[in-house]
């Protein structure tokens, strides 16, 4: 455990400096569609928590209030390392609440990420909150991929036959695509969900397996095999042959954008300042070497560290001792520590370059939505809008 932890620190530090190896993602879903189970298993699969604990210990539900209510309230941040084609990637995962009352938190999490894994229950199909979270992602210019969860239920509960399975799954995809087309007609051309391309993954978060068309080519485990394994109740072998984290995180790495790619298309939507100004250029290019722009998306209270501002570093490099202006206040705050996540733990580091999710102490004037910057006059980001109604509103 200790060795695994230590080695992981070095790997995370190495990747933090390489934006092309970073993916900042959120998982969003209608309540009960399996977001928590999925997050746990991704963490376990990438070696960040023991595989035996996943599922038992709902990792991201750490708030007492959440546990009492049995739902996820806070958008917490965890990071993991995933290997594709011999290269390692740092996946920063922001957990988003599934309950409609906490829609504001979902939107905040969306501001920090560049890609979204939309989870839909294979049996229930898209639900009102699927629409809401998808809309929130699209209005922040966050690219979606689709995870169709609980495929085991189609086979073992609904008892559909082999031929019907792809048809049922195809209907879910069509419906999500209809939503994307309606909400974001411009992006639809490139963001259309397409199983053949690998932007749709099918699986079971509970039983820890998943397949995609690209994974089928690699592992030889296709829909036929999935069907047979489920019928036999041999989930263990299925999850060994085609593990959930491989199929899904491969799709994340291949299809969701790097911070540099994403900022080029997201900044014009979320920031209305002058793109030709020095800070505008820093934001558009995710420049680590000039102005600091750190947007706070969440404030955590830590029993030891006190208030921790978590957010997305869009430009510059954060270091301890820096004096930052916090939007809306006249004075500067001194950065006391900077940290990234390793699993669900915060790991203090000397500095964090742009494109990462950072946890900072010392920004005592920061509130959710504020920006910490080296600039006294900084055009704030667009207000984070909370959309809970399934109707098209302002652009
Ligand atoms: P969340 O509200 O989206 O976070 O959903 P949870 O992860 O808490 O899952 C809701 C329920 O669905 C729990 O009882 C899970 O055990 C169950 N569940 C999650 N994934 C699967 C799956 O792949 N198959 C089946 N059969 N049940 C699942």
From TrEMBL:
Domain Tr-type G: start-end pairs: 20-260
Keyword terms of this UniProt record: Cytoplasm, Elongation factor, GTP-binding, Nucleotide-binding, Protein biosynthesis
UniProt main location, coarse: cytoplasm
Gene Ontology CC: one annotated term: ribonucleoprotein complex
Keyword check for Transferase: no
MF terms in GO: GTP binding; GTPase activity; translation elongation factor activity
Binding positions for GTP per the UniProt entry: 29-36, 95-99, 149-152
Location(s), subcellular: Cytoplasm
Family: Belongs to the TRAFAC class translation factor GTPase superfamily. Classic translation factor GTPase family. EF-G/EF-2 subfamily.
Task performed by this protein: Catalyzes the GTP-dependent ribosomal translocation step during translation elongation. During this step, the ribosome changes from the pre-translocational (PRE) to the post-translocational (POST) state as the newly formed A-site-bound peptidyl-tRNA and P-site-bound deacylated tRNA move to the P and E sites, respectively. Catalyzes the coordinated movement of the two tRNA molecules, the mRNA and conformational changes in the ribosome.
Protein name: Elongation factor 2
Origin species: Methanooceanicella nereidis
Organism classification: Archaea, Methanobacteriati, Methanobacteriota, Stenosarchaea group, Methanomicrobia
């Amino acid at each position: 455990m200790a060795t695994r932890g230590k080695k992981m620190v070095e790997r995370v530090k190495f990747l933090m400096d390489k934006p092309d190896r970073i993916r900042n993602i959120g998982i969003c879903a209608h309540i009960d569609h399996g977001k928590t189970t999925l997050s746990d298993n991704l963490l376990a699969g990438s070696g960040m928590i023991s595989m035996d604990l996943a599922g038992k210990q709902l990792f991201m539900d750490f708030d007492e209030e959440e546990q009492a209510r049995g739902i996820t309230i806070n958008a917490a941040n965890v990071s993991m390392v995933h290997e594709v084609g011999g290269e390692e990637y740092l996946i920063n995962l922001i957990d988003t609440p599934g309950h409609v009352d906490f829609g504001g938190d979902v939107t905040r999490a969306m501001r920090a990420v560049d890609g979204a894994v939309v989870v839909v229950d294979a049996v229930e199909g898209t639900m009102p909150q699927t629409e809401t979270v998808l809309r929130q992602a699209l209005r922040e210019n966050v690219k979606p991929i689709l995870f169709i969860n609980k495929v085991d239920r189609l086979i073992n509960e609904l008892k559909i036959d082999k031929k019907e399975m792809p048809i049922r799954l195809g209907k879910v995809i069509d419906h999500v695509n209809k939503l994307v087309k309606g909400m974001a007609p411009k992006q639809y051309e490139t963001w259309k969900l397409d199983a053949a391309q690998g932007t749709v993954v099918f699986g079971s978060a509970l039983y820890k397996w998943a397949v995609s068309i690209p994974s089928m080519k690699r592992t030889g485990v296709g829909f036929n095999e999935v069907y047979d394994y489920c019928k036999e109740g041999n989930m263990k072998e299925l999850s060994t042959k085609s593990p959930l984290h491989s199929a899904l995180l491969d799709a994340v790495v291949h299809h969701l954008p790097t911070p540099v790619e994403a900022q080029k298309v997201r900044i014009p939507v979320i920031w209305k300042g002058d793109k030709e100004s020095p800070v505008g250029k820093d934001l558009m290019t995710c420049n680590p070497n000039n102005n600091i722009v750190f947007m706070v998306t969440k404030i955590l209270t830590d029993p030891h560290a006190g208030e921790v501002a978590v957010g997305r570093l869009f430009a510059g490099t954060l270091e301890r001792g820096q004096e930052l202006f916090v939007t809306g206040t006249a004075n500067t705050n001194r950065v006391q520590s900077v940290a990234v996540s390793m699993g669900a733990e915060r790991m203090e580091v000397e500095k964090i370059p742009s494109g990462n999710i950072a946890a900072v102490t010392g920004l005592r004037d920061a509130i959710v939505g504020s920006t910490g910057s080296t600039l006294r006059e900084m055009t704030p980001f667009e207000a984070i809008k909370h959309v809970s109604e399934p109707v098209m509103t302002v652009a």
